[in-house]
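Re: export button greyed out
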Amino acid sequence: MTGVLFNVALAVLVLGLAVWTIIAREAFAAVVGFIAYGLLLTLVWVQLQGIDVALTEAAIGGGLTGVLLIGAAARLRGIEAAPGAERPRNSLYWMAGAVSAAVTAVLVICVLALPDPAPTLAHEVALNIVDTGVANPITAVLLAFRPMDTLLEAIVLVFALIGVWSLAPDDSWGGRPGPVQQSDPNGILAYAARILPPLGIVIGIYIFWTGADYPGGKFQGATILAAMWLLLMMAGLSEAPPISRGWLRVGLVAGPLVFIAIGFIGVLTAGDFFGYPQGLAKPLIVAIELALMPSLTLVLGLLMVGAPQRVAKL
Amino acid sequence: MSHVLDLLTVVAVAAGGFFFFAGTVGLLRFPDVLTRLHALTKADNLGLGLVVLGLLLQVDSVLAGLKLACVWLLVLVSAGSVSQLIACRARRSAQGR
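Workaround output, generated via the alternate export path:
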């Protein structure tokens, strides 16, 4: 009974917050609503027993996307507040609402039209997971049964970073990304940036390592590490590296390259792209995750910092 | 013995819930940034602290208890730093006016 009550309250809150986020007049308020929405959605995933998805939603959906949107809202603030600023017409709001409602309706029809029980490969995963050596089915699917999807995701992130960098003005290409941080070296931000990273690094690596057998993994772990790095940069304790640095570029592509290389090794040893030889599946999966983790940390951190804005020193 | 522990848990979690409620009311009703922050940090520190204390009586392993304590400490550090940052910013923008 209390479970039902909790679920209903959660659903009402999520829907209410979604509506509030859409109708909020100020971009910043809408972003705050969106972040809270992401956190509530995390609870929804926990209720659905999707702990892996919940972790990702909290780290990427609420946290990382939230930071990106806060940055965007801060940039738009001047434009929004300017006298005579253009506001979208009401008809535009209604049109966007109608399109969203139509998409929702199609989704609802699709979900309701699914046969019961829904087609699933869960049994196959459960039968074959022993061969992979990992105990967390999510990790097994991501890295043993459908590694191609994971590989492309990792590559897309590198492309996204290149896209962000390409917004740099010509004279700052190759320079340090992001604004110069001016923060009090004895202030509270510097204090937090000294206390939190040691804990955050341990937690990030723990979440990465435990991903083999329990909910967790490289993505969630890398997000935490990237957050710690961002904290150091925001507090002025560490500077973003110039994007022309060789080690940085090597680090960015090393993870995906190792991933692809292990895929090709599969062609030689197991006769299939991403085929793992018998008994070696788990070490190879761990190797991929280990290689991807630093690359993902760099990509996610630098995505937050943004395009190079400072003139490169020659 | 376990009944006593259960009772203590209920009391502590209920007290924590009260602080969260009071903090939320304060956030909605108090007149300016600093007083609202005050209300909010009470919910974070005492509310969560009491909830964690109540749950600590129910854990079955030392590790789980340590994790709960870590959660509370991490929230303390982050909530404390963030509220300081907001307060600094509020004071600066008030002086600038």
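The radius of gyration of chain A is 22 Å. The button fix ships in the next patch.
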